[in-house]
Design goal:
alpha+beta; four-stranded mixed β-sheet; 4 strands
Length: 302
Amino acid sequence: MKTRLFIAVAALMTAGFCASAQELNCRVEFNTQQLQNVGTSVFQTLQEAVSEYMNNTKFSEAQIASSEKIECQLVFTITDYTDGVAKGSIQVQSIRPVYNTAYTTTLLNFKDNKIDFSYSEGEPLQFSENTMESQLTALLNFYAYLILAMDFDSFSLRGGEVFWQRLATIVQQAQSSGEIGWKAFEDNKNRSAVLSAYTDPATRELRDLTYQYHRAGLDEMAQSPDKGRANITSALEILKKVYDVSSMSVGLSMTKDAKLDELVNVYSKAPQTEREKVYEILYPLFPTETTRLDKIKKGQTK
C-alpha cells in the first residue's frame, strides 16, 4: 500500500501515458442467458479477448507490483446480438485494501445500462492512446481509466487527475462517433454524466470525498476507530453540497451503491449522536433507502 501511495503522488507529475505497466487484475464475465437462437461461441471468444485486453494492456506509466494490482470486475449482460452488434448492460466494480487490515472496500459499483458495440468472432481488440479504435475498446478504456482514477483519488488527494484527463479525451472522441452512452445531456447516468460528476467545478468535490473517506477515514480506523469514523462523517457532508447544486448527479447514486451497506457497519458502534448526524445527512439524499438508513440510525448491522 505504501507503494500505491507513492505512485498516486507520482501520477500527478506524469504528463503522458505509455505502454509500460499493467495495473488491473480484472475478472470478466458475459451473461447471455437472455439471448435466443444465438450461438455462444462468439461470446466465449469475446470474454477471453476482453479479459486479455483489460489485464494485459498497460494503461499508464504507473509501476504497480503484481501484488498491488487493482482488483476489479466487468460483468456484461447481453440482451441482443443482431448482425454482429451486441446490446445490453455492464456492471463495473472495483475494490481497494484498507490499511493494516484484511478488509477490502468497494470503490466503484456502477451499472451502465446502455452499451452497444459491434464485434465479430476472432476480431482483435487493439489499444490506442490517441484514437478511438472501436466502440468496444472505447468502452473498455473508459472503465479502465475510471477504475484507475477512483483508486488513485482514494490514496492521494485528487491523485487520479491524469486519469480523469484521459477520461475526458475518451468521452470527447466517443461523442464524435454519435454512439449511445456518450452524449452530454442524453442521460443523467451515462458515461458523459459520470465524467461530469467528478470533474465539473460544481460537483468535483466528490473526488475529495473519495480521499477523505478512504485515506483519512477507513485507513485511519485500524489505529483510531473514532478518529477515522469522524473523518468519514465529515466527508459525507460533501454529498450535501453536491445534492444542493445537482440533486440528480450520478455521483450521488454511485456513492450510495458503493458505500451504503458499508456505512451501516462503520456506524454500528458509533455514539448515538454521531449516528443521528449521519442519518440526517443521508436521508434527504436517499429517501427510498429507509431500511439501511434506519440501521445506521439505530446502530444495527442486520
